[in-house]
TrEMBL record:
Organism field: Peloplasma aerotolerans
Record's cofactor remark: Binds 1 FAD per subunit.
Domain FAD/NAD(P)-binding span(s) in chain numbering: 6-322
Cofactor(s) required, per the database record: FAD
Keywords: Disulfide bond, FAD, Flavoprotein, NAD, NADP, Nucleotide-binding, Oxidoreductase, Redox-active center
MF-aspect GO terms: flavin adenine dinucleotide binding; NAD(P)H dehydrogenase (quinone) activity; oxidoreductase activity, acting on a sulfur group of donors, NAD(P) as acceptor
Residues bound to FAD: K51, T139, G140, S141, D307
Classification via Pfam families: Pyr_redox_2, Pyr_redox_dim
Domain of life: Bacteria
Binding site for NAD(+): G176, A177, G178, P179, I180, G181, L182, E183, G266
Pyridine nucleotide-disulphide oxidoreductase dimerisation domain: residues covered: 342-449
Disulphide bridges: C42-C47
Name the UniProt record assigns to this protein: FAD-dependent oxidoreductase
Amino acid sequence: MKYQNDLIVIGAGSGGLVVASGAAALGARVTLIEKEKMGGDCLNSGCVPSKSFLKGAHLAKEMKDADQFGIHSTIESIEIGELMHRVHGVIDQIAPHDSIERYEGLGVSVVIGEAKIKSKHEVVVGSKTLTAKNIVVSTGSKPYIPKIKGLDQVSYLTNLNIFEMNHTPKHLIVLGAGPIGLELGQGFRHLGVEVTMIDQSKSLFTKDDNEVGPLMEKVLLKDGVQLLLNSKIIEIIKENEAIKVIVEKDNNRIEIIGDELLVALGRIPNTQDLGLEEIGVKLNARGYIQTNKKLQTHVKNIYACGDVVGPYQFTHMAGYQAGLVIRNAIFHLGSKVNYYNVPWTTYTKPEVAHVGYTEQTAKELNLFKKTIHVPLESNDRAKAENDVIGFLKLIIGKKGTLIGATLVGEKAGEMIPIASLAIQQKLKPNVFMNIIFSYPTESEIFKTASLQLLRDSFKPWKANLLKKILFKK
Ligand SMILES: Cc1cc2nc3c(=O)[nH]c(=O)nc-3n(C[C@H](O)[C@H](O)[C@H](O)COP(=O)(O)OP(=O)(O)OC[C@H]3O[C@@H](n4cnc5c(N)ncnc54)[C@H](O)[C@@H]3O)c2cc1C
Ligand SMILES: NC(=O)c1ccc[n+]([C@@H]2O[C@H](COP(=O)([O-])OP(=O)(O)OC[C@H]3O[C@@H](n4cnc5c(N)ncnc54)[C@H](O)[C@@H]3O)[C@@H](O)[C@H]2O)c1
């Protein structure tokens, strides 16, 4: 059978765009179908707006803390509408990169409309049926809205509408203290908004090193965020203009009254109404597409990548998986996903980042040998900038190589790739000793870790022997 396309890609977000442009660059006939905005979540309602928003929020925090530098200023007003206007300006600057015009220029045929898979080689958009040898599903995810009593009776915010806000709330109640709740909740607090975060989990940053949660809890409390952890959300009640959230914590009933509510309780994959199960693509119990390690679904010519597959919902993961889909769907290389060296950064202030194993996962897998822990307050640049809250923890595996790293600090997201490279190259942690780091930089903390390792391994008998050989009178 002759197909109109080599590849049909459904969804023009972080995953789909990379598959479409990569495959077209190789000469494949590609149709990319998008039902809403080109660029998907990351550009329009995820990474780009959230990080642009956080720049303003963190700036406000720095202005409030400027006294310590001898700079005395007062913030006259914070205009959320203006801040959000800038956020949309940043989206507009980046949007041409993901635009229909650019993709058509790259040789991709772009169709705007809702796609539905009709058979293993046919996709329907409106009245059109398109055919392809291979299909890639990269339809992303959306906010999970659980059934909480009264939630459907109030108007609430999610990542889809929060960046449209044009007034400053008095009290923002945040349901969920995962990355979205933490980044946006802390951001609004920095803008002077009263913020209460509610989560069922006993601690914060549960996917990071065990030391991170308690440290960041202190940071948030110092910022003035009210934290209700280990809490069950019972009911939400609209009271005139206010929203009341009733929570149960330690057998006590607590009522929180705010004027805005952000729901950040996780994500669900966009797999409904796509016709997937009808043609034999299997979903797991939570609705995510099941694939093998080559990212092939149960229907072998249908691949999937990005949030719709998981297990990590990051733009860099969608991009990584997209690269693999190209290798497998076009070149049939049989490449398999490897999730060993995935970086995670949460853009709180300070940032929290890790790559490879945490101490606890390394121990669980019986790979753990030791850790090196260096507090940021030992670093001269951090002292100069008063960014001393944080640490570097290197995880060393049984073979003596680096297998994981956690960094907390103002520049953690920018510095974590140093550890990624060492882990990927299976290097020993003393490798940083042979690198000349610029002084003063926070990344020198890696060299400090190497020196600490050397010092730790330098037993007293070795020191005595060396003294005798080198300095004998
Ligand atoms: C507030 C927030 C902040 C984030 N911050 C970060 C961050 O700092 N760093 C990071 O790495 N990740 C971040 N993420 C996660 C990141 O945005 C996602 O992991 C990434 O966008 C996933 O890409 P994707 O291609 O899988 O899905 P998406 O980008 O969601 O793209 C899927 C596309 O498919 C389209 N679609 C769906 N169904 C159909 C259909 N039937 N027909 C046609 N089109 C369809 C959708 O309209 C959408 O455009 C953040 C997410 C949120 C919500
Ligand atoms: N910096 C980044 O890379 C970044 C930033 C934002 C979002 N993201 C991506 O988006 C994904 C979604 O983020 P998220 O924060 O919405 O989801 P999440 O699943 O990471 O966190 C949701 C939080 O809500 C809590 N929760 C869930 N149901 C609850 C209930 N009924 N009552 C009380 N608490 C409840 C959970 O304990 C959890 O802490 C992330 O996993 C991440 O992959 C990434």
